[in-house]
UniProtKB/TrEMBL annotation:
Keywords annotated in UniProt: ATP synthesis, CF(0), Hydrogen ion transport, Ion transport, Membrane, Mitochondrion, Transport
One Pfam family from the record: ATP-synt_G
Protein's cellular compartments: Mitochondrion membrane
InterPro entries: ATP_synth_F0_gsu_mt
Protein name from the UniProt record: Mitochondrial ATP synthase g subunit family protein
Organism from which the protein derives: Genlisea aurea
GO BP field: proton motive force-driven ATP synthesis
Transmembrane residue ranges: none
Gene Ontology MF annotations: proton transmembrane transporter activity
Signal peptide: none
GO annotation, cellular component aspect: mitochondrial membrane; proton-transporting ATP synthase complex
Primary location group: mitochondrion
Assigned protein family: Belongs to the ATPase g subunit family.
Positions in coiled-coil regions: none
Organism taxonomic ancestry: Eukaryota, Viridiplantae, Streptophyta, Embryophyta, Tracheophyta
Protein backbone atom coordinates (compact mmCIF):
# COMPACT_ATOMS: atom_id res chain seq x y z
CA UNK A 1 0.00 0.00 0.00
CA UNK A 2 2.86 2.37 0.83
CA UNK A 3 4.52 1.62 -2.51
CA UNK A 4 1.28 2.47 -4.31
CA UNK A 5 1.03 5.73 -2.38
CA UNK A 6 4.58 6.64 -3.40
CA UNK A 7 3.74 5.92 -7.05
CA UNK A 8 0.69 8.18 -6.87
CA UNK A 9 2.72 10.92 -5.19
CA UNK A 10 5.41 10.66 -7.88
CA UNK A 11 2.80 10.90 -10.64
CA UNK A 12 1.19 13.90 -8.94
CA UNK A 13 4.59 15.57 -8.65
CA UNK A 14 5.27 14.98 -12.35
CA UNK A 15 1.87 16.38 -13.29
CA UNK A 16 2.44 19.46 -11.12
CA UNK A 17 5.81 20.11 -12.75
CA UNK A 18 4.34 19.70 -16.23
CA UNK A 19 1.46 22.06 -15.48
CA UNK A 20 3.72 24.68 -13.91
CA UNK A 21 6.01 24.53 -16.94
CA UNK A 22 3.44 24.38 -19.75
CA UNK A 23 0.21 25.61 -18.12
CA UNK A 24 0.66 29.28 -18.93
CA UNK A 25 1.38 28.63 -22.60
CA UNK A 26 -1.64 26.32 -22.86
CA UNK A 27 -3.85 28.94 -21.17
CA UNK A 28 -2.72 31.65 -23.60
CA UNK A 29 -3.16 29.35 -26.61
CA UNK A 30 -6.64 28.35 -25.46
CA UNK A 31 -7.72 31.98 -25.04
CA UNK A 32 -6.27 32.91 -28.43
CA UNK A 33 -8.10 30.08 -30.19
CA UNK A 34 -11.41 31.01 -28.54
CA UNK A 35 -11.18 34.80 -28.46
CA UNK A 36 -14.40 35.12 -30.49
CA UNK A 37 -16.28 33.83 -27.41
CA UNK A 38 -14.73 36.31 -24.96
CA UNK A 39 -17.01 39.18 -24.08
CA UNK A 40 -15.22 42.50 -23.60
CA UNK A 41 -14.68 43.84 -21.01
CA UNK A 42 -14.15 40.61 -19.02
CA UNK A 43 -15.53 41.88 -15.72
CA UNK A 44 -17.74 40.47 -13.01
CA UNK A 45 -20.63 42.65 -14.21
CA UNK A 46 -20.33 41.21 -17.71
CA UNK A 47 -20.31 37.68 -16.29
CA UNK A 48 -23.39 38.40 -14.19
CA UNK A 49 -25.21 39.84 -17.22
CA UNK A 50 -24.33 36.81 -19.37
CA UNK A 51 -25.42 34.49 -16.58
CA UNK A 52 -28.81 36.20 -16.40
CA UNK A 53 -29.15 36.11 -20.20
CA UNK A 54 -28.43 32.37 -20.21
CA UNK A 55 -30.88 31.69 -17.39
CA UNK A 56 -33.76 33.62 -18.92
CA UNK A 57 -33.07 32.28 -22.41
CA UNK A 58 -33.27 28.75 -21.08
CA UNK A 59 -36.39 29.66 -19.14
CA UNK A 60 -38.00 31.02 -22.32
CA UNK A 61 -37.14 27.82 -24.21
CA UNK A 62 -39.13 25.61 -21.81
CA UNK A 63 -42.37 26.24 -23.71
CA UNK A 64 -40.92 25.01 -27.01
CA UNK A 65 -39.34 21.98 -25.39
CA UNK A 66 -42.64 21.16 -23.66
CA UNK A 67 -44.49 21.29 -26.98
CA UNK A 68 -41.85 19.05 -28.55
CA UNK A 69 -42.23 16.58 -25.67
CA UNK A 70 -46.01 16.37 -26.12
CA UNK A 71 -45.62 15.86 -29.88
CA UNK A 72 -43.21 13.00 -29.21
CA UNK A 73 -45.63 11.52 -26.67
CA UNK A 74 -48.50 11.74 -29.17
CA UNK A 75 -46.32 9.99 -31.75
CA UNK A 76 -45.63 7.17 -29.31
CA UNK A 77 -49.32 6.87 -28.43
CA UNK A 78 -50.16 6.67 -32.13
CA UNK A 79 -47.53 3.96 -32.63
CA UNK A 80 -48.96 2.01 -29.71
CA UNK A 81 -52.48 2.22 -31.19
CA UNK A 82 -51.16 0.86 -34.48
CA UNK A 83 -48.78 -1.69 -32.97
CA UNK A 84 -49.96 -4.39 -35.39
CA UNK A 85 -48.28 -2.39 -38.16
CA UNK A 86 -45.09 -1.96 -36.12
CA UNK A 87 -41.95 -3.00 -37.96
CA UNK A 88 -39.16 -5.01 -36.40
CA UNK A 89 -36.75 -2.11 -36.88
CA UNK A 90 -38.96 0.25 -34.86
CA UNK A 91 -39.36 -2.31 -32.08
CA UNK A 92 -35.58 -2.85 -32.03
CA UNK A 93 -34.90 0.87 -31.76
CA UNK A 94 -37.40 1.16 -28.91
CA UNK A 95 -35.82 -1.81 -27.12
CA UNK A 96 -32.32 -0.37 -27.51
CA UNK A 97 -33.54 2.98 -26.17
CA UNK A 98 -35.08 1.28 -23.15
CA UNK A 99 -31.90 -0.70 -22.49
CA UNK A 100 -29.82 2.48 -22.76
CA UNK A 101 -32.06 4.29 -20.27
CA UNK A 102 -31.81 1.37 -17.86
CA UNK A 103 -28.00 1.26 -18.24
CA UNK A 104 -27.72 5.01 -17.50
CA UNK A 105 -29.95 4.49 -14.45
CA UNK A 106 -27.70 1.67 -13.21
CA UNK A 107 -24.56 3.73 -13.82
CA UNK A 108 -26.09 6.64 -11.91
CA UNK A 109 -26.93 4.38 -9.00
CA UNK A 110 -23.38 3.01 -8.90
CA UNK A 111 -21.91 6.51 -9.02
CA UNK A 112 -24.35 7.69 -6.37
CA UNK A 113 -23.21 4.92 -4.03
CA UNK A 114 -19.59 5.98 -4.42
CA UNK A 115 -18.67 3.39 -7.07
CA UNK A 116 -19.58 0.42 -4.90
CA UNK A 117 -21.41 -2.41 -6.56
CA UNK A 118 -23.07 -3.96 -3.51
CA UNK A 119 -24.38 -2.52 -0.30
CA UNK A 120 -23.35 0.53 1.65
CA UNK A 121 -19.96 0.75 3.33
CA UNK A 122 -19.54 3.78 5.58
Amino acid sequence: MAARLQQVQAKACQATKFISKHGSAYYKQLLEQNKQYVKDPPTIETCNELSKQLFYTRLASIEGRTESFWRELDYIKNMWKNRQELRVEDAGIAALFGIECFAWFCAGEIIGRGFTFTGYYP
